[in-house]
Amino acid sequence: MRAETSDKAEIVTQLTFGECYEVVGQDGNWLQLQLAADGYRGWIDSKQHTPVTADYYKEWTKTNHPRVTDLLQVVSNGNVRIPVGIGCYLPFFDGESIRVNEERYLYTGKASDPASAATTAELLKVADNFLKSPYLWGGKSVFGIDCSGFTQLVFGICGYQLPRDAYQQVDLGEEVHFVTQSQPGDLAYFSNAEGRITHVGLVLEGQKIMHAHGEVRIDTLDHNGIYNADRKRYSHNLRIIKRIHL
């Protein structure tokens, strides 16, 4: 999904398999979308559009769908095989197949259980899958991901919907006042010189943090911010730490 109606425009986010959206505008061959999961807006070329019925969309928005937990899998209907990566939605998964409109696709991989609350250990295990994934502005997959896409996807797989951007995510959760009081699974937010929240990462044990910066990596977190041992300097200035209760 792009910021403007051009293939050269900034990528603002990505759609993952199984997501639903509303078309809220059109400009030539470009469609403006609003995602059902987080309300985010952007443009896609109409060639990428797959329409669903109003009834399907309504049912989709009222259902907590499992997500793919294997790094890479496929869904298939005998004629078509579609690759799906970790974090993709499995609409109306019944343990054997999913449904897109009236079409059924077989899925034999692992899936999250939206009816079961995830533990912190499970959250961190999900996050580990993204280590070394390359950074991509607007990205939302192991093949390219940004900082808030990483936290949104990890928490989403574990059944908790975060907004898309770091400055939106920071409004959620309970404040943790000191780095020494932080716990694995907390979210740490970082600001730029103007004081705007521009970065987010997932707190680990031992005052470490996993975040997307060049790649999904693990660095040291202290009261100043993120210290990058490879470059021997701080890369981000700490603003606040928040705790999300899953």
Which structural traits does this protein have?
246 residues; mainly beta; SH3 type barrels; endopeptidase fold (from Nostoc punctiforme); 3 domains; six-stranded antiparallel beta barrel; three-stranded antiparallel β-sheet; 4 helices; 13% helix; 33% strand; globular
Largest pleated sheet? 6 strands, antiparallel, barrel
* Terminus-to-terminus distance: 29 Å
Low-confidence stretches: none
Roughly what is the average pLDDT, rounded to an integer?
97
**In which order are the strands of the major sheet placed?**
11-12-13-14-15-16
Helix content: 10-25%
**SS strand fraction:** 25-35%
Shape type: globular
Q: What is the ordering of alpha helices and beta strands?
A: EEEHEEEEHEEHHEEEEEEE
CATH architecture of the largest domain: Alpha-Beta Complex
Give the CATH H-level superfamily of the largest domain: endopeptidase domain like (from Nostoc punctiforme)
Structural class: mainly beta
Structural Rg? 19 Å
Structure in words:
Helix content is 13%, strand content 33%. It is mainly beta and 246 residues long. It folds into 3 domains: 1-51, Roll (SH3 type barrels), CATH 2.30.30; 53-114, no CATH class; 120-243, endopeptidase fold (from Nostoc punctiforme), CATH 3.90.1720.10. A 6-stranded antiparallel barrel has the order 11-12-13-14-15-16. Strands 1-2-3 form a 3-stranded antiparallel sheet, with no helix packed on it. A hairpin with a 3-residue loop joins strand 14 (216-221) and strand 15. The longest helix is centred in the middle third of the chain and has 11 residues, at 147-157. The chain is globular, with a radius of gyration of 19 Å.
